[in-house]
UniProtKB/TrEMBL annotation, chains A, B:
Keyword Amino-acid biosynthesis: yes
Protein's UniProt name: Phosphoserine aminotransferase
Positions bound to L-glutamate: R42
Domain of life from the UniProt record: Bacteria
Pathway: Amino-acid biosynthesis; L-serine biosynthesis; L-serine from 3-phospho-D-glycerate: step 2/3; Cofactor biosynthesis; pyridoxine 5'-phosphate biosynthesis; pyridoxine 5'-phosphate from D-erythrose 4-phosphate: step 3/5
Family: Belongs to the class-V pyridoxal-phosphate-dependent aminotransferase family. SerC subfamily.
Amino acid sequence: MSRQYNFSAGPAALPEDVLRQAQAEMLEWSGAHASVMEISHRGKEFIALAEAAECDLRELLDVPSGYKVLFLQGGATQHFAQIPLNFARREQSVDYVLTGDWSEKAAKEAKPLAKVRIAASSAATNYDRIPPRVEWDLDRDAAYLHITPNETIRGVEFHEIPDAGGVPLIGDVSSTILSRPLDVSRYAMLYAGAQKNIGPSGLVVAIVRDDLLERCPKDIPKILSYAEHAAQGSMLNTPNTWGWYLAGLVFKWVKAQGGVAAMAERNRAKAELLYGYIDASGWYRNPVEKSARSWMNVPFTLPREELDAPFLKESEQAGLLALKGHRAVGGMRASIYNAMPLEGVQALVDFMKDFARRNG
Amino acid sequence: MSRQYNFSAGPAALPEDVLRQAQAEMLEWSGAHASVMEISHRGKEFIALAEAAECDLRELLDVPSGYKVLFLQGGATQHFAQIPLNFARREQSVDYVLTGDWSEKAAKEAKPLAKVRIAASSAATNYDRIPPRVEWDLDRDAAYLHITPNETIRGVEFHEIPDAGGVPLIGDVSSTILSRPLDVSRYAMLYAGAQKNIGPSGLVVAIVRDDLLERCPKDIPKILSYAEHAAQGSMLNTPNTWGWYLAGLVFKWVKAQGGVAAMAERNRAKAELLYGYIDASGWYRNPVEKSARSWMNVPFTLPREELDAPFLKESEQAGLLALKGHRAVGGMRASIYNAMPLEGVQALVDFMKDFARRNG
């Protein structure tokens, strides 16, 4: 056994306790005499699992009544398309705030389906900040306003939910959900690909306000309609049952850690440790404005590009996995989601110090 | 440990060898120092896994060159919508042959997107047969002809691929893929939800001929375009990596069993044993025409409805799981996919004999 500290941006590390339970139950889950992957999603055993997972997530995020919680497929990217398909209206624009590659992609996928407006963008400064709210050019009559509360590639995070001026706010929280408390009531819809803080890839969790669901057109295929999925309890067709199961185990794990408030404390400490060292080093560099630095994804560069290869090789030898930065940015990136313990970040900082000393 | 014979229609039983390997590798897969769910789908380790799975499937089904093999999400139901979105043409109809509930659903989901024609249907006889090919009313100019080679609910299967008269033939092989040899060259597209003969739910395998891919419109969101998925090697966004991994293990298992020819022999023997007993019993009854009986799903009824509840209770006590028939049909259904051994069917027949003797 040599599991190592895994800084993968996603699919990302899962809590080891969760993996151990899944391992123990692989051949026989609960009293089913079969694995959880081998039973009907409509049977009472799986329905109980599904309901418990939803219930735990509602509790963790304190989801107000009047919101549906959905367990869907397709990755967040599919929902980049499904959101305008369901919620855009012919006469209205849909507004997007661009703070990195993922919000860009979300806007691009919406273009064939809606009148996309860019309400704000920090592209001009290489996505190193959140554009100040006062400079946003919002359309008061927009069908919705879309933001990406955390950008995994650039490592840029909204630390406050922006005022959407009365327009329904939709947030892609794939890489920040469950990392800290979240005021769901400020959003009309939240959605998250599971493969960072929730579970394995292939599952999407969506939290949608009832009034938004009323907009879903009746003349689209049912499988693309959020209202239909909501009406069928996310069982319009066979869901990703393994993903739903693992998500349920992760929710229980987060609760056992003390919930999202405790995760926030831990995540703040991890981020402060890593950014603190980067800034103090004078050698490594993170390009993001301090007020917008992500707690989850920390990109950093070395003083000279030719040091990247040895850094990656030696960090891997030191048991620190998947530190290579995204090809769009270069350098390194440490993704430090919920499942990464403080000790992992400390081990990374220790390695970085040593590497800088030897190569400085 | 008390895994039992599992007759679930889907998500269905997986080969125990596959589950044991997944269990052993749950915390550390290959040399990754992490589970297969915790690594980047774009890293060389996962790419190698993905390519091996595709390669094994191509070998198993003898997929000709000129076809792309895709690993997608959304369940077959999502593809009920994606198929017309990608392949219908404004002026052309799309033809559907209805042989049960799943082909009905496929046609329904296509309606908002294309001019759907029903070329043939056995609804009038309660989907107890395949409508004879000579009676089909095909549109020679249809954009495609859609069939469902096996219907899980009614237990109706095409034992020969019908002549599509030059129209591109599309088949939903969710519940029959890998159960027997399949002449891929007769189809323009095949697709299958994984949760019967391939792996866990949340994964769809599609095999699409290149000329069909050229039809995909450029003005739809990329995530809904088969051509875009093909161009990106099914990694347009994060795929269901766990599903892909398990599918790869199942493909290796099928190869180790002797491939699809060996599976066909075994499946034929299982089906003959069960139908043979049902017919000989004079007590149980299967309503499907003999020439169209499914090798994978065997619905049967008891002489009196009030015997259903005791049959289900006692069969479960005897270690025979999930025999309840679909609510649309009633009675019982034994799904006997690849992972069900002959011994499981024998155990079912033994139980059925005993139950009939005691209640006859």
